[in-house]
Amino acid sequence: QAATSPSEPREIPPADPWTPTSNLKMLISAASPEIRSRERSRELSNNTREVPQAKHCLQEHLPGDEYEKSQPNRKEKSLRLLCHKFLARYPDYPSTEDSFICLDEVAEELNVERRRIYGIVNVLESLHMVSRLAKNRYVWHGRHNLSKTLQALKKVGEENRYTQQIQIIKKREYEHEFDFDGERNEEKARYFGSSEHSDMSFVELPGTEFHAASVNSRKDKSLRVMSQKFVMLFLVSTPQVVSLEVAAKILIGEDQLEDLDKSKFKTKIRRFYDITNVLISLKLIEKVHVTEERGRKPAFKWTGPEISQDIQDTKLETTYATCPPAVSAFIHSKAQCLKNLFPLRERQNFIRHPSLIKLVKSIEKDRRKIQSAPASPVKISASTDQNFSAFPSKMAQVPAIAKHPLEGQSKKARKIGMKLSQSALECTLSLPEAVAKPEAPCTTTPTLQPALTQPLSACTPSHSSVSPVILPHTFSSVPYAIHLHSSQTYTVTTYSPSFMKPVLCAVTGIKSINSKALNKTTTDERDSQTATDDPTKSLTAKEKLPIKSQTSSQRGLKRSQALQENNLIKRFRSDEKSLDTSLTFFLCGYPIPLTQYVHDNKAGFSNTEKAEMSSLQHTTYSSLIVGVSPRTTYEPKAVNIPAFHITPLNIMLSPTSTGAALVVNNSCLSSSNTSSVQNLSPSVLNFTLHHVAAGVQVPVNPVLQHVPVPLQPKSVSHSSENVHLQGEKVSKNILQYIGHGRLSGKVSAVIPPCVPREPQEPQTATENFFRTPGGPNT
DNA sequence: CATTCCCGCCACCGG
DNA sequence: CCGGTGGCGGGAATG
């Protein structure tokens, strides 16, 4: 049916009168901020009225009738237009809520087949403007991550020597027509080989996490990767003008030097059209014509933001830019922010990672089972905050789940788990005091005050009394944002601008932990130099993934990695249960490092220290439960899952950036004007303060030693590796946080009781968490 | 004819 | 086995 008439009135259920106009309307509406909220409602509402106008415009010449469809020429269905419509639905810089994208809905609303939407989404994904949340659903990140992504892409592009490749190709053209065979290939091969671009196959650099998802095996290569590479070409080439031909040749060269079919070339070009259309819609490029000796050919010019080499600067800029909206929103609705926005947002972030998705699902499943037998979790109700209350309950379930024998998961997990536990131990080591202060009542108490009291020095000395709070810690300047959740916890986010690698964590009760250490990194030493980029390396060792290289096996590796990742997570859970009793509190961490993870902390412990601490280990937290952020409001399912998600990015940033942005803003604001803070509600203040602390820190950080990353061919492979390591990282991060966490004195003053909760016995709470479901209710 | 690129078949993949 | 994804390329619309 479709073939004949473009418009598909028939197929569409009569109920939904989608008209072309509605789409237009959407575009218009896009301008307004509220679009998002209304989008859902809109579908029903806006069916009728405007149709007439739009149609008329387009099709005046025809008598009004069915031709309406006829008109919708190709152009109307063009990907570009479609993309515009799509983009119009979401704000460039979504600050808070998120925009979730449901493919079905969108397809319906935009009146296109789903297949078409994939095209758009895929390229957006390559730019990290969206990320897949789950089947059929994506999260809209907007342009928050854009500059980081571009930066990352540029870096990779440089590493790949695209510039040279382009040169070569151009030269060739002059020499002979075009056509790549023989020598050309050889040459390319040489280039490529030398550069080891092999990693390129999956340039996920940009924080792309999907590969991590384990879901994607080989498929994802194409559009997404092509898109990234294409963008790289722009970023790398000087004139910033790229012709499809050149782009296609380069990309083909990368993929397989051997076969250069014409058909392949053609297909590639076709895909490029798809990509260019969306990039054009994004206004990142525009079509131009280049006249060369050979003649005039169509090409595209980069019109997007320039990306600076300096990573740091760029990052900062980006961040700040992002901030405003978020901040304002944040500030306005103080209470709400805390309650609604914050939690929600965070949750979303947490959920984003593909790996999480799986977890979530599985967990969900488990949870359901368990739910039937409700574990009466913590009396969350006690908590003032609704959101929290909701959260804890769910969280409580997690442990319960863990206890239940999880089907197959546990087995697989086991191996990995072992590793994890090990790493956990290591981490533990680094936290000397943890054991020492088992009671850490503070933890129970939501407030961070104790922590706050501490000097902001943030760095090393650790000893924060307890609170899981997080801090901007260490000189390492690794920024983290931690989000605490627990029955009694509240969320805190910190961000340290210096490095832009904010991490979000959700921590749920902690045994007291103090430490100085954080560094426990085993790996640090070796990779210190590259610290900037590859967190992976360090991690790798533990995981022992073959770093090997790159080229060929990547895919397999990825997969395996992904699996491992999952396993790790699972493992974590299982570990928890084992720990449960022992731990008074447990951590629920969800650290999400945005960008690269720096381990400079390598300050690290000496081995000896570790050894000393090791004794303490058992206490520790191996049980970090990760992840999970329940989102009460939105989708319950996603929320409850414990998982940890880390986005490793060497080069990239994570989706979380949004959250990060928020934080940053806050810090900025607060820092600039502390006094203003007082106007806010306590809860808000708390929140703010934390940030402030972070902000304060900023200046301090010299930063930046981490620096430019050496271009190493391996980078790619590393990134992939990151995934595996996540578990470890997470744990590390968490520990670090804990260890470092402390706030400045002033902060403490300001901070009011955040979440005043009656002091419940911590233990009880904890126990509840761990307790298997089926408690009281049943 | 050349350039664009829509359309939708169909293979994959995870559930 | 199912339904979401998305590679892929024919061939239609456009220039």
Automatic annotation (TrEMBL):
Residues 57-74, 522-546 have a biased composition (Basic and acidic residues). Residues 1-74, 519-560, 756-778 are annotated as: Disordered. GO terms for molecular function: DNA-binding transcription factor activity, RNA polymerase II-specific; RNA polymerase II cis-regulatory region sequence-specific DNA binding. Residues 74-142, 218-304 form the E2F/DP family winged-helix DNA-binding domain. One of its GO terms (cellular component) is RNA polymerase II transcription regulator complex. Keywords: Activator, Cell cycle, DNA-binding, Nucleus, Repressor, Transcription, Transcription regulation. InterPro entries: E2F, E2F_WHTH_DNA-bd_dom, WH-like_DNA-bd_sf, WH_DNA-bd_sf. It is found in: Nucleus. The keyword Nucleus applies. One of its GO terms (biological process) is sprouting angiogenesis. Residues 548-560, 761-778 have a biased composition (Polar residues). Belongs to the E2F/DP family. This is Transcription factor E2F8. It comes from Crotophaga sulcirostris (Groove-billed ani). The gene is E2f8.
